[in-house]
User: Fold this.
Amino acid sequence: MSFDSGPLDRYISAAVGDDPAMAAELRASFAESANELADLMRRARCDANWHVAAERLKSLSATFGIIPLIQLAETAMEGAPGDPAVLREINRAIETIT
Assistant:
């Protein structure tokens, strides 16, 4: 799945204008939060924890308009908890943001 950073770039631009330092900080903050949620998913020991972390990732992604990550979070919620293939795709998508 390819990642289009356009929505994130537009969101950041609308939020901070032409301040490159603030834009970098906001992008890093998003990536850090997304990585923490992906890690929570990886460490989930029950279906409920997996589902809650995936829902939070979906919500975070929706805030920034990142459709591919929203879709991956939905795939995680619909699939088997702990699915390593979905986790790999989520981590790849997050890596492309930073």
Observations:
- The mean pLDDT is 89.
